[in-house]
Design brief:
The protein is an all-alpha fold and 440 residues long. Helix content is 80%, strand content 0%. It is globular, with a radius of gyration of 22 Å. It is a multi-pass membrane protein.
């Protein structure tokens, strides 16, 4: 690939990964961490940038055409089921409607009031559908138009805030949890971006774009996927650091806000007055629009692939857009309550798939290892799912969860899957050895 094409693909991938949530989380992190902002940001970057980069690298290392091919190393049916749940959860059930609602609540509502949600979401999805209908042009729209425009507006806000800080990072004390555990809190806060799942979902789009640019050799495609992923993640590191620092420099003057959206609104207003709300509205709208377009394209391409006799690509785009529009206006809060535990179920499985795919770059990983690791990790994923349910739905399982908290290592830290993953590797290798000897 030419250098300018590689940069365009990297910017496109960054644009699909970096949404309004990525904009909001580091600002709030900076306010909570205050003087410990860099320690907390280091932890945040490891999970919010490092893990998605590994996800992209896993697709490259395994030469998989997307997350589905990677997941099917466990089994064909399991791979389709896993990726279907993943796409539906981060797509029409959760992330796509959230893109529209966040655009309104953070960017538009402060300007026009609280009665314009239906009209704004209709306009939002009309634009998203228009852009998603031509997947071959996604590089142009996201990589060369929307994302660069987003970066310009974001740069206006960030550079102004960094050059003229509202206060020093030491003007206020760090919140209690960030006084002694800044790194670990930042580390786990990075999970909230859920970009590991997005990396698997968007991987197929990136591979398709690279092939459209004339790269046909499998090894060359794999290498370009990794290079583009590294560039996009480098952009994310710079922006995360700047957002966290701006948040830390604002807390002495503004105090700790309830969330990052409120913090950004206060910061933009402090620097630009009413015009700051316009700058923020455009920034958030562009951030959400590019992610929504990427998700619509990815979801439609996936279901067209696994259901070749089903609806056409454009029909899937329309179906997901209409469903997301309804959710954004009618029941997003309730859906999010149940989407979060599903994400907690999917996240460890995605991480172990990525880890095994990366290991396959240097050593042969037999299918028995994939199956055993996924089977062992699934047990703890079920516990994480139950623990993430809303309080009413979780009530019948309180006894089981109390036992898990007491006896399952690392359960309270959200890392209960680590030891089962290691156990699965051992079981899988033993099973592979036995099967090999029998065959011999």
């Amino acid at each position: 690939m030419k250098a300018r094409d590689r940069i365009s693909v990297a910017v496109m991938l960054f644009g699909m990964l970096f949404g309004a949530g990525n904009l909001i989380f580091p600002v709030h992190l900076g306010q909570l961490a205050a003087g410990n902002v860099w320690v907390a940001t280091l932890g945040f970057v490891i999970t919010a940038v490092g893990l998605p980069l590994l996800g992209v690298a896993a697709l490259g290392a395994s030469r998989a055409s997307g997350g589905l091919e990677l997941a099917q190393k466990v089994g064909g049916t399991w791979g389709i089921a896993f990726m279907s749940v993943l796409y539906l959860t981060i797509g029409p059930f959760f992330a796509i409607p959230r893109c529209a609602s966040v655009t309104y609540t953070v960017g538009i509502e402060p300007l026009v009031g609280s009665s314009w949600l239906p009209a704004c979401t209709v306009v939002f999805f009309a634009i998203a559908v228009l852009l998603a209908m031509r997947p071959g042009q996604i590089l142009t729209w996201i990589g060369k138009v929307i994302t660069p425009l987003f970066l310009v507006f974001l740069a206006v806000l960030l550079i102004t805030a960094l050059v003229n800080p509202l206060s020093s990072v030491d003007a206020a004390a760090a919140s209690a949890n960030y006084q002694t555990n800044a790194f670990s809190n930042g580390f786990f806060e990075g999970y909230n971006t859920m970009d590991v799942l997005a990396a698997l979902a968007f991987g197929g789009v990136v591979v398709d774009v690279i092939r459209r640019l004339g790269v046909s050799d499998g090894g060359a495609v794999a290498g370009e996927v990794v290079r583009c992923g590294a560039v996009s993640c480098a952009i994310m590191v710079v922006i995360y650091g700047a957002l966290a620092l701006v948040g830390a420099q604002s807390v002495g003057a503004l105090g700790v806000s309830e969330n990052g959206g409120i913090a950004l609104t206060q910061i933009a207003t402090a620097y630009f007055g009413p015009a700051g709300l316009v700058i923020l509205a455009v920034t958030v709208a562009l951030a959400c629009l590019k992610v929504a377009v990427g998700l619509l394209v990815s979801c439609a391409e996936f279901f067209r692939e696994v259901l070749p006799k089903g609806p056409s690509y454009r029909a899937w785009v329309l179906l997901f857009a209409v469903f997301s529009l309804v959710i954004a206006n009618a029941g997003l809060t309730r859906v999010i309550e149940y989407a979060v535990p599903v994400l907690m179920f999917l996240y460890p499985l995605a991480i172990v798939l990525i880890g095994l795919a990366l290991a396959g770059r240097w050593v042969s990983v037999p299918r028995q290892v994939y199956v055993a690791v996924v089977a062992c990790v699934t047990v703890t994923c079920v516990l994480d799912f139950l623990n993430g349910l809303p309080e009413v739905a979780r009530a019948p399982f309180e006894g089981l969860l109390a036992g898990a908290s007491a006896y399952v290592p690392l359960f309270d830290m959200g890392l209960s899957w680590l030891l089962p993953a290691v156990l699965g590797v051992v079981i899988g290798l033993v099973a592979h050895t036995i099967a090999t000897r029998k065959a011999a």
